[in-house]
Each structure stands twice: as C-alpha cells, then as structure tokens.
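dumping this here so i dont lose it
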C-alpha cells in the first residue's frame, strides 16, 4: 500500500470548491479513475493497491456503484464550470482486474454526466497476463481507444526481481490483441532494477521496439520507502540501483527509440507523432484541471488540489453517508504554482517560458546562464525565450530545476 498522504487542510464534507477555483478560463477538464485492485503486489510498488485479502469486506464488484456516487458528487461540485472531458485515464492497481463491462460502465457514467470531446483519448492501464482480444474488443466497443501495457522488462530474472507476475512471451500477444481490437498501444518499461545489466536493458529495449507500438514510456526505478524492495536493499539482499548505469541506460534507450522514429516529448516518454503522445499526461504537465475518482486518487481544479481517503472500505463508507471521500486538500499559492510549472513544463520537449523563472527567482538570469554554460539548457532556444533541456540536462533534470527555482 502507498505511503502516508500529504498533510493539508480539512476538506469540506460536501466537496465544495472556492468560487475562484471554478473560474475555468481556458483550462481543459480531464478525469482519472483509480482502480486499486491487484492480483499480487510487486515488491517495488508504492501505489495505493490492494490484493483480495486486504480489502476487509470491500467487494470489487461494488466498484462501479461507489464510483457512480463520486461522479454524482463531482457533477454537483462542478455544476457552474461543467466542461466535457478531454481525456479519461483508468489507472491502478490493475484496472483490467475488473470485468470489461465494469470499465465500460464506469466510462459510460462519466460520459453521461460530463460529456466528452469527439477526439478524446480514453486509456486504461493493463497487465499482459489478464487481457485478450475478446476483453479488449469489448473495451473498444465501449469507448476506449488506447491501452497502456505494463511490460516493464523482457528479461525473466528482472521481472522476478520486480515481482512482476507476467511472462515476457505474453507481451507480444497482448499488443497484437490490442491492435486487432483497434486500440492504440503504449508499453511501459522500467530500468535500473537491482541486478539488471546493460545487456538486459538492451534486450528489453529491442523487444519493445519490435512490438512496433506508437508510444513507449521508460522510467527509472525509484526505491520507495516502505516497500519490500526497499527492505531488501536495506538488508543487503539486493544491491542499490547504480545511478551512472541508469544514465547509460537512458541514453541507450533514447538513441534506440530515435532510430526507429520514436522521439522524446517528455523526460520518460517517446512517441511516433504528436497525435500519439499521451494527451492525458500532457494535461498534468500543463497544469490543466482533472478530477481523480476512486480510493486514494488526487484531483486538481483551479489551483485547489485534494486527495481521497485510501482504503476502498473507507472510500465507500464516506460516499454511503453522502460525504466527499476527500481526506484533505490544499490551495496552491502563487510561488508554489510557479515552482510546479518549472518542475513540470521543463520536462517537455517544448520546454518552459523563461519568464516563469524570472517571475519566481530574482537571480533567474544568472541561473539560466549557468545552466546554459553547463550544457544543460539549449542556448539557442534560451535566446528565443524558451528553456529546453539538452540530453545532458534531461539526465540532470531535478538538479536543473533546483538551480532555476533558487
């Protein structure tokens, strides 16, 4: 299960938002649905997930009913700023632990209450071992158009270290089934697992490229406190990830993806075209509005951020009383908003308007010049007012952000 939640202000029981937050301007609206069920928990996972023996009487079959209650509440809260959904994303956990009908019914409930733009991207995450053509075709008929598949690695020993349950040979079958069903497909990879060699990573990258998907995400493994993996590393059972080797793996992946027409558009994401980028994730990085539904989900509307209670039983209990499931919230102040823009927008290939840094940091000119001199920011783009990371800068992105924020 995930670590502790943020410390924030109490959230009103009716879920109401300040009038200013409902002044939408040009912000688009997006929805995230958190399905917290997993067959097993991977050793590295810090997400808000539950196996069947941890649900304490909560029936996954009740998920749609409880979700519908939160959708009703969200419609009341957003009545004065109702906008159609531009993207929908089902994450987890493993959304495909639920029957396809439950996912389709959940999507239908959202569409009925909010509407959806004709070009909306509708995604679900999935594991390779619990989807097939029949399941995915049902999703496609029900309005889904994109699948994000958790491949992680093509090497059995790496999957074993991560405690992933699927076999590598299942991945091509799942990708083919998704394509045959008419879904756009992305695969997710993780690099830096203890014991993973460069040859292991090259094998994974080559296998991912061979799938001929239009999108690949590749994330460096983060060892989260409280996970089984963290305990194994602390006890000496497993070695800590090697940061220098992780950098080499990133550079290899970037070069390999570029060679087949997959170009980076965000630090950990590569796509064949603008059209096949993850529109939902871009909405996060651009600070748009989204409502996160489900246990532990986070939301952001008009500079107010809140998060739901984590356990499915507590979530259902709040809703059954007619209350918001929000556990707490915070209002983002001016400087925090600018800091978050730097942190998020600098990750994108288009970079960040330099004025954002100048509005926050009195020493912005010097900080920007230092990062150009260090080879972390593209000097030509900076002259045109955009701060765009170089390949070296991408490898050092967190440090670049700290220097720019001041």
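and the seq i came up w/
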């Amino acid at each position: 299960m995930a670590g502790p939640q943020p410390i924030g202000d109490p959230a009103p029981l009716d879920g109401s938002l300040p009038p200013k937050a409902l002044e939408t301007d040009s912000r688009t609206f997006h929805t995230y649905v958190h399905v917290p069920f997993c067959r097993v928990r991977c050793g590295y996972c810090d997400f808000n997930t539950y196996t069947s023996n941890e649900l304490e009487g909560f029936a996954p079959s009740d998920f749609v009913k409880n979700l519908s209650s939160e959708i009703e509440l969200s419609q009341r809260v957003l009545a004065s700023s109702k906008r159609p959904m531009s993207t929908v994303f089902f994450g987890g956990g493993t959304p495909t632990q639920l029957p396809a009908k439950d996912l389709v019914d959940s999507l239908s409930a959202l569409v009925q209450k909010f509407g959806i733009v004709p070009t909306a991207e509708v995604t679900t995450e999935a594991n390779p071992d619990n989807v097939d053509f029949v399941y995915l075709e049902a999703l496609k008929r029900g309005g889904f158009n994109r699948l994000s598949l958790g491949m992680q690695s093509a090497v059995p020993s790496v999957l074993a270290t991560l405690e992933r349950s699927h076999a590598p040979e299942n991945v091509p079958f799942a990708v083919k089934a998704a394509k045959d069903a008419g879904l756009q497909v992305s695969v997710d990879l993780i690099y830096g697992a203890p014991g993973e060699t460069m040859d292991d990573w090259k094998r994974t990258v080559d296998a991912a490229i061979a799938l001929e998907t239009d999108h690949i995400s590749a994330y460096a493994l983060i060892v989260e406190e409280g996970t089984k993996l963290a305990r194994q590393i602390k006890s000496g059972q497993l070695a800590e990830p090697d940061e220098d080797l992780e950098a080499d793996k990133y550079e290899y992946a970037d070069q390999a993806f570029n060679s087949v027409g997959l170009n980076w558009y965000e630090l950990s994401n590569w796509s064949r075209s603008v059209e096949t980028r993850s529109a939902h994730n871009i909405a996060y990085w651009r600070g748009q509005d989204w409502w996160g539904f489900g246990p532990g989900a986070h939301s952001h509307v008009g500079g107010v951020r809140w998060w739901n209670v984590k356990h499915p039983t507590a979530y259902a209990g709040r809703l059954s009383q007619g209350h918001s499931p929000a556990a707490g919230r915070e209002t983002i102040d001016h400087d925090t908003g600018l800091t978050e823009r730097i942190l998020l927008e600098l990750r994108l290939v288009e970079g960040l308007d330099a004025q954002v840094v100048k509005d926050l940091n009195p020493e912005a000119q010097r900080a920007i010049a230092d990062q150009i001199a260090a080879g972390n920011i593209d000097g030509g783009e900076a002259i045109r007012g955009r701060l765009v990371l170089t390949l070296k800068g991408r490898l050092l992105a967190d440090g670049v952000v700290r220097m720019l924020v001041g």
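DSSP finds 16 helices and 14 strands in the chain.
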